[in-house]
Design a protein that fits this description.
single chain, about 300 residues, alpha+beta, 3 domains, about 55% helix, about 15% strand, elongated
């Protein structure tokens, strides 16, 4: 009996350990594959909408992100022309958008390499502005301004005249922006993403696995204990309420293999007359010696 109980306990313990190992392994794989969450949605949109003839984007994976962020602040302060469009330092990553001299871009790349591994590098040129010249665009702008002045003198502020004036104003603003971009063709808009990297850091992976295994192991053992005693409590309450077949001995108690106890009770009761057995009993009566009086009466 004790051996059977011990075997059941060992089986449950092995199952709990196996489940803890499996859960810890799954958590480690997911953590390694997903990695930290980097939110670049707002900065990506800002970089896309920002006007510049030349654009460049660099993504750097850093093992020591804190040191890399400190170095990046120094690079921005040194090379940025004017105020940066974005300069965000966010825990385990950073995002920076600033304008630099076009001929300084290779030098900045050399400054970024010691910070980590350059995972992505791209340079873009606005194809819509390649064939345009500043002088030509300025002439077109001058003619649009003359036309707008004429419309303001001759037309009214209602109907199609107002629509024409609004159209000329929108065209003038677009030309002014194009001229500004062409005049800054010797500059580039740089977008730098610094982010932490766990690649090659096997020690961190092992630590995460051990920590997750310990947490799951304790949790599963507590769950098994709660389930065991909770089930016993429910069965005990059911037996108190009068439900048949529920008792403390039915759960975690002794077990009679093959219903041997009932068989033994039936055997001994039938053999020795226990428990009001209906076995037939044959009675034997011996003849008593007769007296002389009984013999005379029988002779008569």
């Amino acid at each position: 009996m004790a051996r059977s109980r011990k075997s059941r306990i060992q089986g449950v313990a092995i199952l709990v350990i196996f489940l803890a190992l499996a859960a810890a392994g799954i958590m480690s794989i997911r953590s390694r594959d997903s990695g930290p969450n980097f939110d670049y949605k707002d900065s990506n949109k800002q970089f896309e909408n920002a006007g510049s003839l030349n654009k460049a984007e660099v993504v750097v994976n850093c093992l020591n992100i804190s040191k890399a962020l400190d170095e990046m602040s120094s690079i921005v302060n040194t090379y940025s022309i004017g105020k940066p469009l974005r300069k965000d330092r966010l825990g385990h990553y950073g995002k920076y958008i600033f304008q630099v001299e076009l001929d300084k871009f290779p030098e900045i790349l050399q400054k970024l390499r010691p910070l980590g591994n350059i995972a992505q590098q791209s340079e873009l040129v606005d194809s819509t502005l390649i064939n345009k010249r500043v002088a030509t665009e300025e002439q077109v702008l001058a003619s649009k301004r003359i036309e707008l002045a004429r419309l303001e003198q001759e037309s009214s502020y209602y109907g199609s005249d107002l629509d024409n004036k609004n159209t000329r104003i929108a065209e003038i603003r677009k030309l002014e922006n194009t001229i500004d971009l062409l005049k800054n063709s010797d500059k580039t808009l740089l977008y730098v993403k610094l982010q932490t990297s766990f690649s090659g850091n096997s020690l961190t992976t092992v630590k995460d696995f051990v920590r997750n295994f310990a947490i799951f192991l304790v949790g599963f053992f507590i769950l098994v204990i709660v389930a065991y005693y909770g089930t016993k409590l429910v069965m005990y309450l059911l037996s108190l309420m009068g439900f048949k077949g529920f008792s403390m001995s039915n759960f975690g108690g002794s077990y009679q293999y093959g219903n041997y106890g009932n068989y033994a009770n039936r055997y001994y009761s039938s053999r020795y007359g226990y428990r009001n057995s209906k076995r037939k009993v044959k009675r034997i009566y011996k003849d008593k010696p007769t007296t002389p009086r009984e013999e005379d009466e029988s002779g008569k």
